[in-house]
């Protein structure tokens, strides 16, 4: 795990920079009315409904209107940011989630989400910083530990990748994703026997992982294309 002092030297310069962002310097409105809040909630629910239908452009438009009406609503900004991420608009997603963090610098949900955004777009050092901070905010944060494993595997720091995947499995033993993360980290480290054993455990949790084609869906769980190929290699050899 990252040393707290080392992490602090990275994360602390980032947070004041948010306060200097002119877009987020005055997120709260002194003239917010109950009617505005009700309308914002209606737009938020509409956006979530569109998102469920994968109508992302309409979802984003509704959620942006919700944030405009109620800019101090933390959940509204996080939902907007995550929806933008699902729509593969990661620059916009990061901006929305930083706005949320400006409102609440200890929001676990915001840090989990923005860490995933940076992981998926390949900004691995920043993803490590953000997920490490999230793991400090909540030590049993399985999302942070799992994503740290994926990030460290891509950074070729396999000892850390293995350690974080093992912790994620401990925290969420019924989720096959940490098992696959551990398997590819062990495979990369050269411990092929352990990798194959752990992958069989992943199949025990979810039998769909017997299918090489099904592994393509791991991109929705934060795996890179190279990591998915490694997972397929482990499966083939198991």
TrEMBL record:
PROSITE patterns: TPR, TPR_REGION. PANTHER family: BARDET-BIEDL SYNDROME 4 PROTEIN (PTHR44186:SF1), PTHR44186. The keyword Repeat applies. It comes from the Bacteria. InterPro entries: TPR-like_helical_dom_sf (IPR011990), TPR_2 (IPR013105), TPR_rpt (IPR019734). The keyword Magnesium does not apply. This is Uncharacterized protein. Keywords: Repeat, Signal, TPR repeat. Residues 1-19 form the signal peptide. TPR repeats lie at residues 40-73, 142-175. SUPFAM superfamilies: TPR-like.
């Amino acid at each position: 795990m990252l040393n707290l002092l080392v992490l602090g030297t990275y994360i602390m310069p980032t947070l004041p920079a948010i306060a200097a962002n002119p877009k987020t310097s005055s997120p709260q409105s002194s003239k917010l009315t109950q009617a505005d809040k009700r309308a914002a909630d209606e737009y938020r629910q509409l956006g979530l409904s569109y998102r469920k239908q994968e109508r992302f452009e309409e979802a984003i438009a509704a959620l942006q209107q919700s944030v405009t009406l109620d800019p101090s609503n933390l959940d509204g900004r996080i939902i907007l940011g995550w929806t933008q991420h699902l729509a593969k608009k990661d620059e916009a997603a990061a901006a929305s989630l930083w706005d949320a963090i400006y409102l609440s610098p200890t929001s676990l949900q915001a840090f989990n989400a923005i860490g995933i955004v940076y992981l998926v777009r390949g900004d691995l050092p920043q993803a490590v910083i953000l997920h490490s901070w999230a793991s400090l905010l909540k030590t049993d944060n399985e999302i942070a530990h799992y994503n740290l494993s994926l990030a460290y595997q891509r950074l070729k720091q396999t000892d850390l990748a293995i350690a974080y995947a093992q912790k994620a499995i401990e925290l969420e033993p019924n989720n096959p994703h940490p098992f696959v993360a551990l398997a590819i980290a062990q495979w990369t480290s050269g411990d092929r026997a352990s990798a194959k054993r752990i992958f069989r455990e992943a199949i025990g949790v979810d039998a769909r992982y017997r299918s090489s084609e099904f592994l393509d869906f791991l991109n929705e769980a934060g795996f890179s294309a190279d990591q998915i190929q490694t997972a397929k290699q482990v499966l083939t050899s198991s």
